[in-house]
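so i finally got all the pieces together for this one. its four components total, 272 residues if u count the protein bits. some of the lines might not be protein, just check the labels. i wanna see the whole assembly predicted at once instead of chain by chain like last time, that was a mess tbh
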Amino acid sequence: MPRDAVITYSIKELASDFMVTARTLRHYEEQGLLSPGRQGQNRVYTIKDRARLSWILRGKRVGFSLTEIGDMLDLYNLGDGRETQVAVTKKLCRDRIDALQRQMKDIKDTIEELEGFCEEVDSLVKKKNGEWIIDG
Amino acid sequence: MPRDAVITYSIKELASDFMVTARTLRHYEEQGLLSPGRQGQNRVYTIKDRARLSWILRGKRVGFSLTEIGDMLDLYNLGDGRETQVAVTKKLCRDRIDALQRQMKDIKDTIEELEGFCEEVDSLVKKKNGEWIIDG
DNA sequence: TTTCGAATTGACGTTAACGTCAACGTTAAG
DNA sequence: CTTAACGTTGACGTTAACGTCAATTCGAAA
């Protein structure tokens, strides 16, 4: 019987929802990336924490370090009415975007090279068909 | 007065050409990614080593580990007339490509989110112009 | 009440990709 | 000959991002 109708999650729930371990969530908290509430001694995660975690994990997938992700999350806390360093913020954003675009190009090139390599293998197989040994 | 007209590079030359340290090249050799010739005790790198190094570094840029890069380089040593596991090879290639394409999507999404964020900041600045403090 | 499951806080272990340092050999110049 | 620049091989240090384990605590179920 919930006192308030606020949806929350235990550490294990949130962890398994995102396919990470509880240790990971605690680690993110140690690094200041998450700051869930407490219910006594236990951590309680809200929908906002879910959103943050989602961001963190995508940041990771695209190659950011936790520190960088922390910086980016801080940027999201702009607009809170306090005086903020907008110029710095925008520069960080732009730098990120530039880096990501360079990374995309690198990946594109690599994909093309890999595809070319696949074709090479294909033609080799067609040419020397029968001479190749394909086993485990 | 070169005995042979083969272009070679010292470890420092190759390193500075690619903006890495000599230690890095030795490390790659320890991991079996490079295997330069020797001139007495010293390493001599050829144009082929340059090509391999170039591959290695792009692999790194797109987020591969050295071990993975080693595997990929091994794939390039196909077609040497020996019996080879073509099916396995092609699967590895395809897996790589798939992973890279997923990574591209992630990056694209992130770029879009960052751009959206930038615009948010812009509009905030326009709206509350004057109230923001932009200093160092 | 005992026991179980799920949580907590330390605190040390691990892997990857080098950095860094020590101790040493080899030319080439002054 | 001495110094300098460049090379070599160990071998230990470092950072990041957790893994892993021990010792506890707490609330609920049997």
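Residues 1-63 of chain B form a domain with the Multidrug-efflux Transporter Regulator; Chain: A; Domain 2 fold (CATH 1.10.1660.10).
Helices of chain B lie at 11-17, 22-30, 47-61, 66-76, 86-127.
anyway lmk what u think
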